[in-house]
What we know:
This protein is an alpha+beta fold. It is built from 13 helices and eleven strands. Helix 4 packs antiparallel against helix 5.
Amino acid sequence: xxxxxxxxxxxxxxxxxxxxxxxxxxxxxxxxxxxxxxxxxxxxxxxxxxxxxxxxxxxxxxxxxxxxxxxxxxxxxxxxxxxxxxxxxxxxxxxxxxxxxxxxxxxxxxxxxxxxxxxxxxxxxxxxxxxxxxxxxxxxxxxxxxxxxxxxxxxxxxxxxxxxxxxxxxxxxxxxxxxxxxxxxxxxxxxxxxxxxxxxxxxxxxxxxxxxxxxxxxxxxxxxxxxxxxxxxxxxxxxxxxxxxxxxxxxxxxxxxxxxxxxxxxxxxxxxxxxxxxxxxxxxxxxxxxxxxxxxxxxxxxxxxxxxxxxxxxxxxxxxxxxxxxxxxxxxxxxxxxxxxxxxxxxxxxxxxx
Length: 354
């Protein structure tokens, strides 16, 4: 999310030749010592043509709508997901109330632009009616499809890419001394909060018996990059081990610039062979060249655990829920994570129900 800065290390084109060096780099950037309080929100919605709700909106139409929004949003950035879903991402706000207020206002502005043109947004965890079909022609998304196909999870991977929508909270990591307790709290609360947000009982017109088919899909896709991280007592080490063990999804082909330094990327490709990032460091010829800090930073963006550390904490496990509900859901989740007294009361209830 914009302006929740993640620390950077090293020259982006410097080759990585030592696995322990990479592990230390990732561990050092996992979380940032900071006071609690700042909150960012990201909300995805399925773009719908009100005149033909079963039709997936085409890319030219999506781009036209985004252009019409222009700079009218006050506190959010607008982006387009693979299936044409629109995502509002707020700047960090000094608390939950400010973050929710900002997103409500920008959702209202976006909704007005869409309604003027005959479109709307459906805030649900999974598209309940339309079959998966990628709209966004981005090379990243094209190559992600190829990766999932080769990994044997193409159907569910495509479903997540083009038919899913979530509500994401971004929270400061808090003071270093409290990281372990904070992550333990998240681990304990996550199943309850997933169930609370469950809002995707249908996909392409059919049920599976799950209240959140979005979560069902996430649990079936490429576990080395989507399974939960077991943070334990050393979050940095745990995240570094996770990242190094995960397969490389996308590689930028680069050309030699002055003095044989890598220059601008030619294109983004999905490797033909399955190689973990650690093995790419150990065996650079396996993917044609040694990885760089730039490759490492990009690799981290292709990991999708339910809680992803980026200096701050990304909570990625909530379904998108309708406009009348998501402010309350965001308030509940944020309060439980940032207010120890509230969590202690809920923790007592969880103990009593176990």
